[in-house]
Amino acid sequence: MKRIIVAAAVLAATSAGLATAQQPKPEDEIRYRQSVMNVVGRAMGPMGAMAQGKAPFNAAVVQKNSALIDSLMGLHWNSFGPGTDKGAPNKADPRIWKEAAKFKQAVETGQKAVATLADVSKSGDEAKFKAAFGEVGKACKGCHDDFRTKEFHD
Amino acid sequence: MKRIIVAAAVLAATSAGLATAQQPKPEDEIRYRQSVMNVVGRAMGPMGAMAQGKAPFNAAVVQKNSALIDSLMGLHWNSFGPGTDKGAPNKADPRIWKEAAKFKQAVETGQKAVATLADVSKSGDEAKFKAAFGEVGKACKGCHDDFRTKEFHD
Fold first, then answer.
1. B133 to A44: CB separation less than 8 angstroms, yes or no
2. 3-state SS string over A25-76?
3. How far apart are the C-alpha atoms of A47 and A115, rounded to whole Å?
4. pLDDT tens-digit profile of A21-41?
5. Most A-contacting residue of B38, B68, B73, B76 (CB-CB within 10 A), to test interface
6. Helix or strand or coil: residue B7?
7. pTM of the predicted protein model
8. ipTM of the complex
9. From the list A4, A20, A135, which residue is nearest B138 (CB)?
10. Best interface-test mutation with B: which of A1, A11, A32, A33 has the largest number of B CBs within 10 A?
């Protein structure tokens, strides 16, 4: 058993691109932030189509995807630490570090909007979903407008 | 409200790198698979340290991280569709498509091991966690040995 546990742990550390005792490198932090956002974006897609009326409302998908986004939204904010503004191509705006309090507030607005979406999605009510999804979109856009650059930079 | 919903939907489509009605491009599928695995790997890290005795057992972290991995493990398998073997640097082995039934079995073994880990983690029992984590490690390693190349290829 011990050998299996060690193998699993080594695998975990390798998969994450970091040794368990080390601070993640800036490029790993950037990649992680982008990975979380990529998974969030994919989960948003079908809900966006439903909100626009381009796909029929599917309460089960809405519930599953909003719960997933809710569990992801808290993960990557800790990966905007000092020194993670460069190290790999990314779109993080320098204002993230210059206006840290404002960034934190934008993050919290997003987290709250997503938590509300996940909560109302349990009801299976389409109108409530659309309203909550709209608020998530506003929060996403607000944060991206202020803290995401248009082009990638190193 | 309608304008907000449209903005949110456009944002969702943009974030995911795909228009809602389109089939994702191979490079988007590859990026998505890698993103999911990156988030899984990061969640595995602290549990690996605990399994190895390098960090104290923390039942709350184990429960949270194993639930997250459980919700992620089903997401990316659909992104190994035909034609997604190339399009961006990746480590997918051609055997994924040549030995599709074996790959599917390996995937299911991994999903079951992760579901068990998430389940036993609710108990807060360290020994059960270690046993289940070992099985997850075995499943990860088995699939990676057979279906992941050592180096990136285009």
1. no
2. CHHHHHHHHHHHHHHHHHHHHHHHHHHCCCCCCCHHHHHHHHHHHHHHCCCC
3. 15
4. 468 899 999 999 999 999 999
5. B38
6. helix
7. 0.87
8. 0.86
9. A4
10. A11
